[in-house]
Q: What sequence folds into this?
């Protein structure tokens, strides 16, 4: 075992950390980082505890033993209805959406080399919202049409923002973010206009979608989302292994033999698709994509994009927020987006202040 | 922002007084032209709408009172709306000048820096908890919210060694707006009554405003504008940097404090009256600077005239393009202003951009 350390020419930080396992003939080797594994384990534990709590508590408490029994196929009919039909899809949707947002955020932040380079900030979310509200209020489409409209709107907006931030042959990080703010303001005013044109009932439905909610999510939402993640996660994780090198700059990465343009294209496509799938399933849930990777960094102290830890962190954040949102006000089920918006927004303020104080961003 | 070096009295300059008089005359002429344009827009704003009224009818109604149907439409609906548009347009534009000068930031705007969001969240609280529906009651909340949000954004943006750069202030404003937006959705979701009041107020519209509202907000708007006019010389000094301004004998702390008070009055009152309207404060000062250069003693008066032209012009466009309904003015100004913002971001060399 050895501990490789490679210093980045830009930041002086160590780019690769961890330990390497090799077989004696050096035909096969794996790099692993003990602290990251520990963090992932603890986060998974938190997710399991939250899962147990969400499945067993509520207006109709089901003891944990009966939950396990029901999940294993036994149990009473009423337990089966409460646990498998009502509570489980919501929990699984939360896990999947949180993981998708966390991974997407990790890739975007690493690619843009900026802690703010998340889908929330670069206008993707505003575009998705406008697309969906247009579908809900004007074309009165169903679940599938709304999801498609959101994805289309988000992708179109992300492309416009990217093209508009392109000056002198490159995209500067801060310009991307500011153009995103400008385009986002325009789209938000379109959304607000559409809301004033609708009846109060329609407008409230659209508003709930806009905030992002897991209320009433069933298996028909979870299954396509799960399929999307099964395809996208391995591609993202495999392509994302080289993000640590890409962070050192294109020239260095090219010199090290990494196909820079191809890797970046693959990652942009998969990360956008992850964010789009999550948005289509439950609306634009704020700040998870931004916060999850940022929270992982100080915990794991590892290098690279840390896609897997960010995904688990996202799942933990979202299920925890949803658990809180269901219970913070008795008799009302708040949309989870309100919770992540308030908590995540406050966290963003703190993050900005902290980064600026230490002079890193 | 390069400083206005003609801070010396216009007549007492040592270099080429004739040329300076020429510049002054040209700027005065420009001011007169802008005034004429404003008058035209005001008349158009009274004439155009769901029921078009010819200009002769407008003048007849204005001089003879409520004798006819046209007279009622004009005096009860269009005139209050127009007067409010003039007052709010001027207020937002002047607030934009002040914010851009105080933060030395070309991207400053009450919408982008979160001041409108602060006023909005305070108003929502007022509607929700104390069930206020009268503007006289909640205008004070709007002041409180606007003031608190601007201080918060400035403190957040100016942390660290490099201080409050344009990018940081814009980001801090966006972050604070996001939190406040989530709080607003939290309240409006729990409470359909508040949501119904808020969704119309929240776009920013001049329509459906009582004549009473004008009298309630006008004192604050006038006070804020007078403050801004009075401090325009000190703003010129501030543009040279804090140290130079101090060396020139300007009280920098006082200028900033008075400026913050004026911004709070202007944005708070304007937002309370018509809802959050973005991008007027961003766009107008940049348009005015094309004519006036960086001298705030000209910039403030020009903005007072150009702000209403932009706001009323947008309002008229909103009335015309969606007949027989109308599009709220806040939406039109976003579509006019956001491209200006993006053009600035693309072209200007802003620190850290």
A:
């Amino acid at each position: 075992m050895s501990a490789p350390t490679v210093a980045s020419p830009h930041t002086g930080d160590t780019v690769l950390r961890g330990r390497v396992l090799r077989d004696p003939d050096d035909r096969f080797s794996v790099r692993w980082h003990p602290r990251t594994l520990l963090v992932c384990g603890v986060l998974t534990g938190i997710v399991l505890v939250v899962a147990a709590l969400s499945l067993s508590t509520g207006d109709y408490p089901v003891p944990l033993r009966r939950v396990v029994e029901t999940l294993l196929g036994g149990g009473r009919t009423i337990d089966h209805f409460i646990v498998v039909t009502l509570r489980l899809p919501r929990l699984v949707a939360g896990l999947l959406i949180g993981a998708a947002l966390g991974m997407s955020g990790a890739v975007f932040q690493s690619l843009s080399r900026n802690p703010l380079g998340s889908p929330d900030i670069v206008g993707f979310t505003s575009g998705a919202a406008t697309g969906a509200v247009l579908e809900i209020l004007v074309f009165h489409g169903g679940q599938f049409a709304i999801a498609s409209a959101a994805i289309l709107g988000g992708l179109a907006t992300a492309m416009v923002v990217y093209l508009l931030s392109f000056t002198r042959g490159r995209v500067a990080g801060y310009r991307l973010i500011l153009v995103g703010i400008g385009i986002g303001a325009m789209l938000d005013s379109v959304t607000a206009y559409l809301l004033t044109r609708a009846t109060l009932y329609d407008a409230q439905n659209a508003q709930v979608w806009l905030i992002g909610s897991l209320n009433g999510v069933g298996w028909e939402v979870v299954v396509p989302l799960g399929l999307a993640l099964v395809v996208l996660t391995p591609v993202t994780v495999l392509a994302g292994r080289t993000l640590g090198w890409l962070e050192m700059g294109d020239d260095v990465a090219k010199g090290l033999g990494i196909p820079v343009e191809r890797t970046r294209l693959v990652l942009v496509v998969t990360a956008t698709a992850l964010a789009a799938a999550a948005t289509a399933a439950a609306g634009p849930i704020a700040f998870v994509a931004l916060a999850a990777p940022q929270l992982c960094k100080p915990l794991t102290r590892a290098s690279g994009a840390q896609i897997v830890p960010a995904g688990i962190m996202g799942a933990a954040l979202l299920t925890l927020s949803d658990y809180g949102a269901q219970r913070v006000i008795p008799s009302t089920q708040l949309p989870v987006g309100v919770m992540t918006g308030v908590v995540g927004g406050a966290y963003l303020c703190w993050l900005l202040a902290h980064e600026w104080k230490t002079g890193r961003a | 922002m390069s400083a206005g070096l003609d801070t010396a009295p216009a007549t007492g300059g040592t270099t080429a007084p004739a040329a300076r008089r020429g510049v002054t005359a040209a700027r005065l002429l420009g001011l007169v032209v802008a005034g004429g344009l404003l008058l035209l827009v005001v008349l158009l704003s009274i004439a155009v709408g769901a029921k078009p009224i010819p200009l002769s009818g407008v003048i007849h109604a204005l001089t003879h009172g409520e004798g006819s149907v046209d007279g009622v439409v004009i005096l009860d609906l269009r005139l209050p709306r127009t007067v409010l548009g003039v007052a709010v347009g001027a207020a937002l534009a002047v607030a934009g000048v002040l914010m851009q000068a105080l933060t030395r930031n070309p991207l400053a705007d009450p919408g982008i820096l979160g001041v409108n969001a602060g006023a909005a969240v305070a108003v929502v609280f007022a509607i929700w908890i104390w069930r206020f529906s009268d503007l006289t009651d909640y205008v004070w909340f709007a002041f409180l919210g606007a003031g608190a949000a601007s201080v918060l954004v400035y403190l957040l943006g100016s942390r660290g060694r490099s201080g409050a750069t344009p990018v940081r202030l814009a980001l801090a404003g966006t972050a604070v707006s996001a939190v406040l937006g989530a709080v607003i959705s939290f309240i409006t979701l729990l409470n359909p009554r508040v949501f119904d009041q808020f969704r119309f107020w929240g776009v920013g519209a001049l329509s459906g405003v009582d004549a009473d509202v004008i009298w309630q907000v006008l004192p604050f708007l006038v006070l804020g504008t007078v403050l801004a006019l009075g401090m325009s010389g000190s703003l010129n000094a501030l543009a040279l940097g804090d140290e130079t301004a101090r060396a020139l004998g300007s009280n920098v702390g006082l200028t900033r404090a008075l400026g913050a008070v004026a911004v709070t009055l202007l944005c708070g009152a304007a937002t309370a009256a018509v809802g959050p309207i973005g991008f007027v404060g961003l766009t107008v000062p940049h348009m005015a600077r094309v004519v006036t250069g960086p001298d705030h003693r000209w910039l403030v008066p020009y903005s007072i005239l150009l702000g209403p032209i932009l706001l009323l012009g947008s309002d008229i466009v909103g009335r015309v393009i969606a007949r027989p309904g109308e599009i709220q003015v806040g939406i039109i100004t976003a579509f006019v202003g956001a491209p200006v913002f993006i053009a600035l971001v693309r072209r200007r060399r802003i620190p850290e951009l």
Q: What stands out?
A: Chain B touches chain A through 50 residues (CB under 8 Å). The radius of gyration of chain B is 21 Å. Residues 1-13 of chain B have pLDDT under 50 and may be disordered. Chain B has one domain: 26-347.
